[in-house]
UniProtKB/TrEMBL annotation:
This is Glucose-6-phosphate 1-dehydrogenase. Substrate binds at residues 170, 174, 208, 227, 319. Residues 182-454 form the Glucose-6-phosphate dehydrogenase C-terminal domain. PROSITE patterns: G6P_DEHYDROGENASE. The gene is zwf. It catalyses: D-glucose 6-phosphate + NADP(+) = 6-phospho-D-glucono-1,5-lactone + NADPH + H(+). Residues 3-179 form the Glucose-6-phosphate dehydrogenase NAD-binding domain. GO terms for molecular function: glucose-6-phosphate dehydrogenase activity; NADP binding. Transmembrane segments: none annotated. Pathway: Carbohydrate degradation; pentose phosphate pathway; D-ribulose 5-phosphate from D-glucose 6-phosphate (oxidative stage): step 1/3. InterPro entries: G6P_DH (IPR001282), G6P_DH_AS (IPR019796), G6P_DH_C (IPR022675), G6P_DH_NAD-bd (IPR022674), NAD(P)-bd_dom_sf (IPR036291).
Length: 461
C-alpha cells in the first residue's frame, strides 16, 4: 500500500502517479495493491481517481491506460501531530482489506510534500503509532543547509530506523545514470581512460529551457544552486568519479558514492562559482522586485583523490537557457596537432535524458585523397538495445522502494559530505548573480571555468 502524502500536488501528478501506473502496466506491482492519497483538503475517492487519470493522460506513457487505476485508489484527509484526521482509520481499514484478501501489505509513505512538511509529517507518523514496519520516501531537498540537514536527519532517526528511510534523488534512478557503471566497468575501452591521465575535464550539464512562473514562490526561496547543484549535479558527479564497487548492491554502491563525495573539495565561491539570473525574472508574479535568487549556476568542482586530482568537474544548470539537455561529457586529453594538422577534440558523452545515449567523438581521416584530419562521432541510443522495457526514473525508484532495495537512494553520510562541500556557497563570499539573456547559455563569466575548448554543449550549437 502506497500512502501518498500531497496526493493532489504537482509532484504527485507529474511523476508519482504516472510511475505507479507504469509499474502496474508492466506487472511490477503485487496482485493486490492500493494507493491511499492524502492531503489537507477533503476529497472523495472519485475525485482522486479522476485526478490520477488526468495525470496519467497528461504525463504518463502513451501506451498505459487510466484503467490500471480502477479499484485501486482511495483518499482520506491527512493527519497532523495532534489530529489523526481521516488518515489513521483509513490506513487501518485498507491494511485490513489487503490482509483479508491474503496479502500481507508493505506500507510505504511517500512524502510528495514541501520540505517544510517533512518534519511535521514524520512527527505525525510517530504520534499516531504508524511507524512499525513502514518505509518512508523523502523527496529532495533533504535539508536546505548543513544545519537543517542535521536537524531533519536527527528527527528522522528518532522516529525510524535507517533501513526504513528512502531519500530520493531521481537522477540516480535514470536508466542512463545506471549505465555509467556498466559502460565503465564492462568495457576496457572506457575503463582504461577513466582517470586524470586521459581525461582533461568532466562536464556535467543540465540546462533547461523551462521558466519558473508556475512555481515562482518555491523557486525564489530556493534557486538553482540549492535546487540542482547540491542534489542532482553532486550525485551524478559522484557516480562518474567513484571507484568501481566490489558488487552492485545497496551497501557497496552507497559506500562508493559516499567515499567519493567525501573527496569533494569545498567549493571556492570566488574562484570556482558563477551565479546568474535571467533577465525578466524579477517581473514574474511571486518574485521579489529585488530578488537575488540564482536561476543559473556553474561550478568548478575538484575531487581530491589519486584518480581525479587536477581534473575539474564542471557543473552547470539554469533556467531559460538555449536548450534543454542532461549530459555527462568526459573531455579526453589529445595532442594539439597530429601530422601537422589541428587535432581533436576527443570526447565520451552520455546523454541522461530519456532512455539515454552514448556518443564517442574522435579524430578520423577526412574522405578524399589527401591526409586531412576531421572528427567523427559514433552514437548508440540506449532505446535501440534489445530486451526489456525502459522504466522511468520514478518508476525505477518506486519499484526499488517496494522491494526494499536501497541501492539508488542517498544516505546520511553522503548527504553530510555534499552539504560540507556546498556550505561555502551559503556563506559571505557567495557571488552576486549576473544577468543573462533568456535563450542564451547563461552569463559569459561562466566560460572562464572551462578549458580552452569551452562548454561542450554551447560549442555544439
Amino acid at each position: 500500500m502506497l500512502v501518498l502524502h500531497g496526493a493532489r500536488g504537482d509532484l504527485a501528478r507529474r511523476l508519482v502517479l504516472p510511475a505507479v501506473a507504469e509499474l502496474a502496466a508492466a506487472g511490477l506491482l503485487p496482485d493486490r495493491w492500493t494507493v491511499l492519497g492524502t492531503g489537507r483538503r477533503d476529497a472523495s475517492d472519485d475525485d482522486f481517481a479522476e485526478l490520477a487519470r488526468d495525470a496519467l493522460s497528461e504525463f504518463g506513457p502513451e501506451d498505459v491506460d487510466g484503467g490500471v487505476f480502477d479499484g485501486h485508489l482511495h483518499y482520506a484527509r491527512s493527519f497532523t501531530e495532534d489530529d489523526p484526521g481521516e488518515l489513521v482509520d483509513a490506513i487501518a481499514r485498507e491494511t485490513e482489506a489487503l490482509r483479508d484478501g491474503g496479502t500481507e501489505p508493505t506500507v510505504v509513505h511517500y512524502l510528495a510534500v514541501p520540505p517544510s512538511a517533512f518534519g511535521p509529517t514524520t512527527r505525525g507518523l510517530r504520534a499516531h503509532g504508524l511507524t512499525d514496519g513502514i518505509r518512508v520516501v523523502y523527496e529532495k531537498p533533504y535539508g536546505t543547509s548543513s544545519e537543517s540537514f542535521e536537524e531533519l536527519d536527527a528527527l528522522v532517526h528518532e522516529v525510524l530506523d535507517e533501513d526504513q528511510v528512502f531519500r530520493i534523488d531521481h537522477f540516480l534512478g535514470k536508466e542512463a545514470t545506471q549505465n555509467l557503471h556498466v559502460l565503465r566497468s564492462g568495457n576496457e575501452l572506457f575503463s582504461g581512460v577513466w582517470n586524470a591521465r586521459h581525461v582533461a575535464e568532466v562536464q556535467i550539464d543540465l540546462p533547461e529551457t523551462l521558466d519558473v512562473a508556475d512555481r515562482a514562490d518555491f523557486y525564489d526561496a530556493t534557486g538553482a544552486a540549492l535546487d540542482m547543484l547540491v542534489t542532482h549535479l553532486f550525485q551524478v558527479a559522484a557516480e562518474v568519479a567513484m571507484e568501481p564497487p566490489a558488487r552492485f548492491d545497496a551497501a557497496h554502491l552507497a559506500e562508493a558514492r559516499e567515499r567519493m563525495i567525501g573527496c569533494f573539495r569545498p567549493l571556492d565561491p570566488v574562484e570556482d562559482v558563477v551565479l546568474g539570473q535571467f533577465e525578466g525574472y524579477r517581473g514574474i508574479d511571486g518574485v521579489a522586485d529585488d530578488s537575488s535568487t540564482d536561476t543559473f549556476v556553474a561550478a568548478r568542482l575538484w575531487v581530491d583523490n589519486d584518480r581525479w586530482r587536477g581534473v575539474p568537474f564542471l557543473l552547470r544548470t539554469g533556467k531559460r537557457m538555449a536548450r534543454s539537455a542532461q549530459q555527462v561529457t568526459l573531455v579526453l586529453r589529445t595532442p594539439e596537432q597530429l601530422f601537422g594538422e589541428p587535432n581533436g577534440p576527443g570526447r565520451i558523452a552520455l546523454s541522461l535524458a530519456g532512455d539515454g545515449a552514448i556518443e564517442v567523438t574522435t579524430t578520423v581521416k577526412r574522405p578524399g585523397p589527401d591526409l586531412r584530419l576531421g572528427t567523427g562521432t559514433a552514437s548508440l541510443a540506449l532505446e535501440d538495445v534489445d530486451g526489456g522495457r525502459p522504466v522511468s526514473a520514478y518508476g525505477s525508484l518506486l519499484h526499488d522502494v517496494l522491494v526494499g532495495d536501497r541501492s539508488l537512494f542517498t544516505t546520511p553520510e553522503g548527504l553530510r559530505a555534499a552539504w560540507r562541500a556546498f556550505a561555502p556557497l551559503q556563506g559571505p563570499d557567495r557571488p552576486a548573480p549576473e544577468p543573462y539573456r533568456p535563450g542564451s547559455w547563461g552569463p559569459a563569466a561562466a566560460d572562464r571555468l572551462t578549458g580552452p575548448d569551452g562548454w561542450v554543449l554551447g560549442d555544439q550549437d
